[in-house]
Amino acid sequence: MEQSQRRLVLGLFLIVIGVLFLLRNLDIIDLPWYFHTWQMLLIGLGAFNFLTGNRSSGFILAGIGAVFLLPDIMSFNFRDIWPIVLIIIGASLFFRNRNRTDEEASN
């Protein structure tokens, strides 16, 4: 994504966040407590990176924010979920390598 488009998306992102906080300060809407946490900041930065074309860092930032936010939202223990994380990482590496092998075979 070009620099001007990244600025446009960042500007839109900041406008939306600013409007949400303004509406909360004016008691027009009530935002959940977890909206004001550092974990949501990571998720927001991840979403911004994902939307502006930097998908890998966006996914990583949003994932880290979600992992740290989940225990506060629901009964969540990382010990129960880490095998799933390993499976996702392994599948990602497997399919990425498989696509490269298929492309090399077609050449």
UniProtKB/TrEMBL annotation:
The keyword Membrane applies. The chain crosses the membrane at residues 7-26, 32-51, 58-75, 81-97. The keyword Transmembrane helix applies. Keywords: Membrane, Transmembrane, Transmembrane helix. Residues 9-100 form the LiaF transmembrane domain. This is DUF5668 domain-containing protein. It comes from Imperialibacter roseus. The lineage of its organism: Bacteria, Pseudomonadati, Bacteroidota, Cytophagia, Cytophagales.
